[in-house]
Amino acid sequence: MVSFNFVKKVRRFSQLGAIIVLKPVVIIKTVMGESKRRKDALGEKYGQESYILPWLPLTKSQSKDFMKWTTRGSWMGIAVLALIWVTVLFIGPAMKWWEVNN
């Protein structure tokens, strides 16, 4: 025979399990409701990228691309500057020394 205490504990755990199972369903319904509300509020603009400023026709992804390319260009400029600096500092005087000694 199963004791009455054991049956009470099983019922308690099953009730807790039901709460654990039902809570995510409630959260998902809330999130989906929020998405539908946002879709209704935005209308035709739903799913389109937003602009950085209303009067500036640049989207957020275009601004990210701009930052990526300007950062890449800056590093190329630094590399060219370092190459010119090495040329002027070391190769230029070496050429003059070579010219004088030959």
What is this structure's SSE topology?
Layout: H1 4-42, E1 51-53, E2 56-59, H2 60-101
Antiparallel strand pairs: 1-2
Q: How would you characterize this protein structure?
A:
This protein is mainly α. The protein folds into two domains: 1-48; 53-102. Helices cover 79% and strands 7% of the residues. The chain has two helices and two strands; from the N terminus they run αββα. It has helices spanning 4-42, 60-101, and strands at 51-53, 56-59. Strands 1-2 form a two-stranded antiparallel sheet. It is elongated. The termini are far apart.
Q: Quick one: how many beta strands? A: 2
Q: Could you state the order of secondary-structure elements as H and E? A: HEEH
Mean pLDDT: 77
Please give the domain count: 2
Shape: elongated
Give a quick account of the main beta sheet: strands, pairing sense, barrel closure.
Answer: 2 strands, antiparallel
Relative strand content: 5-15%
